[in-house]
Amino acid sequence: MKLLTSRDNPQYRKLRQLASNSAASRKGEYAILDGIHLCQAYLGHVGIPVLCVASQTSQHHPEVSAIVQECKSGGAKCLLLTDSLYRPISQVENGVDIVFVISKPAVQTCPVLRQTAVLLDRIQDPGNLGSILRSAAAAGIARVFCSAGTASAWSPRVLRAGMGAHFLLEIVENVVLEDVMEASEIPVIATTPYTETTIYDCDLRLPVAWLLGHEGKGIRESLLDKASDRVVVPHQGAMESLNVAACAAVCFFEQVRQNRVCSGGNRPLPD
Amino acid sequence: MKLLTSRDNPQYRKLRQLASNSAASRKGEYAILDGIHLCQAYLGHVGIPVLCVASQTSQHHPEVSAIVQECKSGGAKCLLLTDSLYRPISQVENGVDIVFVISKPAVQTCPVLRQTAVLLDRIQDPGNLGSILRSAAAAGIARVFCSAGTASAWSPRVLRAGMGAHFLLEIVENVVLEDVMEASEIPVIATTPYTETTIYDCDLRLPVAWLLGHEGKGIRESLLDKASDRVVVPHQGAMESLNVAACAAVCFFEQVRQNRVCSGGNRPLPD
C-alpha cells in the first residue's frame, strides 16, 4: 500500500479539502466516510469505494486490514498516511483510523410521490438530519427530499449520525418542496405544535409523506398551506415542542405500529 | 447596569471558567444558561437567576431588556459585557447575547421508583442527552437518573438541547443504577436491539422505568440482567438500530399513546 508522508502531496491536499466540510467539498461529486462502521456499511450495501485511506497505526487493526483487503480485491485504490497526516482528515475522536472516499449517488430527478417519504424543510443541525435519515431507514422508508437550506446530507457529520442510512435511502437534495407536494399522489402530513389533531388520530395505514421543518422556525407557511393534514405529537403543556428528530422518529414508528396492527403483527393488549 | 471591560476582572474570569464546560465547572454548584429561550424558560418555571449577563450590543434587544428588567425587579445581579468580552462566554452562534448563571438544584438522594422514570447508562453525546430530557418532559415523565459516565446534564450543550426540560424534571446524576433497579417497585424495561419483544407487545399502561444505554455499546450486562423486560423498537433488518434519543422518544410516546387509548383520548381508526 502506498505511504504518503508529505503534506504537499496533491492527492493528500485534495483529501484534506474534502474532509474539511467546506462549501466547495459539499458541492463536489465525492463524499468522505469516516470510521469502521460507515466503511463496513458501504461495503455491505453499496460496494467498493473510490479510495480507501488508513493510518500507519491503524493498518494492523484486524477490522481495518479486512476492509483494506476487500477494497484491494475489488480494485479500489488504497493509501496509507503517517499518523500526523491522517489526523486532520478525521473528525472522529478516539476512533480507528480509516476513511473511504466515495462518489455521491447521481443527482435524482424528483419522482412523483406514491410511497411513504420524508420532506425536510431547512433542517439545520447535522445531528438531527442524520438521526432523521437513520430513523427513516429503520422504519422502512425509501426516500427523503431535502429543501435548499437543509444541512448537506453527505457532509461528514450527517454521514456519521446517519450510521449507514445513506446507503439504504434515496436522498434528493435542493428540492423545491412546493412542486413535490403539488404533484404528490399521497397525503402530505405536516408536523406542527399548532394543531389539535394528534398523530394517533391519523390513519397512517396507507402511504403518506411526512413534512418536517426548521428546528426553531418550523415549516414555512407556503408549505403548511399545501399540506393535506397538520398533526402534533401530543406533548405536555409545559414543554413547548419535541426535538425535530425525536418527533420524526415518533411519527415514522406510529406508522410502523399501525401497519403492524393492520397485518396482525402486534399482540393485542389485555382488556 | 454595571459594565465590565477588563479580561482580568475576577468576576469575568469566573464566568469564563464556568462557560468553558471544563471538569471543574461541571462539578461546581453553578450552571450557565445560554440564550433567550433558556433564560425565559428559567424565569417561567424556576425563578430569578443568581446573575444575568448581557452584551453591549444585545442590551437594547427588546426580549433581552425585558429579561434584564425582570431579573432586576427580582433582585438578581445584572452585568453588561463589552462585545469582545461576551464572545468567549457563549457557545451559541448567531444568537442574541444573554446568559444566566444559576444554582444547580441540590443533589437528590435516590427515591424509590414508583412513577414512570428514565434510567440512563453512560449516554455520551450531549445532544442525545438533551433530546432525551426534552422528550421525557414532553411525555410527562418527572424523573431521570443518570449513571456515572453519562454526559453532564448541566453542561451548556445539554442545557441547550434540553430546551428548558431541565426545569421541568428532577435529574439525579452519578446514580448507581443497579441499586435503583433493585429497589424499584415498578418494572424496568430495557431497550435493546437484541430481542424479539417489541414495544408494541408491551403493556405500558402502568408506570415503568425506561432503561437506555450507551450509543455504541448499549446497556451494561449487569443492568440488562436486572431488567424486568427487554424490548425493541422494531426496525427494518438492514438498519442495525435507532439513535438512542430517537429510540427514547418512540418508547416514551408509545406509553403516552397507550394511556390515551386507555382514557379514551384517541379517536379509534376505522376498520
UniProtKB/TrEMBL annotation, chains A, B:
Keywords: Methyltransferase, Transferase. Gene3D superfamilies: 3.30.1330.30, 3.40.1280.10. One of its GO terms (biological process) is RNA processing. Residues 117-252 form the tRNA/rRNA methyltransferase SpoU type domain. SUPFAM superfamilies: alpha/beta knot, L30e-like. The keyword Transferase applies. Pfam families: SpoU_methylase. One of its GO terms (molecular function) is RNA methyltransferase activity. This is tRNA/rRNA methyltransferase SpoU type domain-containing protein.
